[in-house]
Amino acid sequence: MYDRTVSSLRHVLIALGDPLVELQVAPRGLEVDVRDVVIMDPDDPPDVAAGDLALLIGARGRAALPLIRAAGRAKAAAVAVKESSQALVQAATDAGVALLEVRPEVRWGHLESLAKGVLTITTDDGEVLGDLFALAQTIATLTGGIVSIEDTASRVLAYSRSSDEVDELRRLSILGRQGPEPYLKMLREWGVYNLLRSGEEVVRIDERPELGIRRRIAVGIHAGQQPLGTIWVQEGDQPLTEQAERALLGAARVTAPHLIQQRNQPTSRFRENLLAALLTGRMDAVTVAGQIGADPKKPAAVVVFAVRSAEGDRSEHELRRAEMTGLISVHAAAYRRSALVSESGGRTYVLLPDLAPNAQLLSLTREIVTTARRHLHTAVQAAVGSTVSTLDDAQISRQEAERVLDAMARDLDAEVATLADVRSQVLVSEILALLQDNPRIRDPRIDALDPELAKSLLAYLDALGDVRAAADRLHVHPNTLRYRLKRIDLDLDDPLVRLIAQLQLRMR
Q1: Where are the beta strands (DSSP E) in 52-136?
Q2: What is the reported pTM?
Q3: What is the pLDDT of residues 81-122, one digit of tens each?
Q4: Measured between alpha carbons, how far is 281 from 53 in angstroms, rounded to an integer?
Q5: Could you give the domains of the chain?
């Protein structure tokens, strides 16, 4: 059953998510009611009411200040701007209205449509729904194609795995988490989106080799007359099955309650935004703890994971990373109900709050890495930040874990590590990174050594001047090593020369 309803600001943020907007300030909290979405234009008299989400179109910088104050006087729930600033944040705080910053690439029309969809569609079904990625894979099996599920803003929500060749449209959609605008424009010009929004008809899109687009079929996902999204099926190396269109129509009806559930329940996107806001200092620990049911005064820790894939297809790498994040989320939630998981910069971050003094984080992390390696068939590394005394210090744990993971990526084969395990390697790795970025503080004589002499000198230095031990490591005669060392124009009796040489050679 579907009804019109009032949503909280929290639910609006859940639906829109970090790809579209970023919360700057919420003086009255996140549970304030949002009743409608309106447009405020600086050239028109303010027309805003209590509970409105006001989109400040065409108002930037100081021009937005009077509109924010007007929205506050009208008891609006929130205002959205394209460019935030400290002055706007202060004005919103003083006015008692939440301030949202809209990503520069987001179109106002799409934002308005999606935000209104949050307010007009709810479900009281209560059914526990399955994973959208699993559903996409089921649709792929039934249709014989390559599937992606998108929302009304053309953001990719889930997609099927495939060994078939994907076309440029699907590849860019997955990598960017949104269809590339030039292709979307062409689809609009061809009338595809109008057909998808108008009803349940399966739409056929012919192959366009000159555009890198293969044949595909698509169907709109609806709740009554309200569009919720689209299912796209690209033809792979083999033709689609005979029942593909019938299966796609049924799939759209099955997918509708999944998307409704996403819009009206605390979804992972909202929780991802909470973690990102905490770890970057944009939201305080007390607020985050209140949203996830954690105690901000109890110990916490951050663990960071990375997929170490070999060079290859970036789409496959993205699929593996998405699967790894899902796997990590399941393990983390089982360990702590209040755990938060988020992706950033190609890494997956896990916040584990409410920790006991003897929490076995290494065991949990090793279990996750082992499971991920077994299922993804690729190398996974993880760094465990130190357990900090309160949630306020989570950034310290994150920074420590990032330092360890950086060193692991450069110099270490370990799968799981803490700073205590590899402190020397981390410090040396960071020194080497500084040397790499600053050629002027290097000795040019060491940089000029040929590979054979460089390898011989490093072995000699690592062996603390023991020629025989170094020769054994190099599999050469000690006299051969002595001859090579004599060819090097360095005073190896000087400890400072040896120190600089060892660092530079390790960098090489």
Answers
A1: 52-56, 78-81, 98-102
A2: 0.46
A3: 988 999 999 999 999 999 999 888 777 766 775 676 556 433
A4: 25
A5: 7-121 (3.40.1390.20), 125-262 (3.30.450.40), 266-429 (3.30.70.1230), 442-507 (1.10.10.2840)
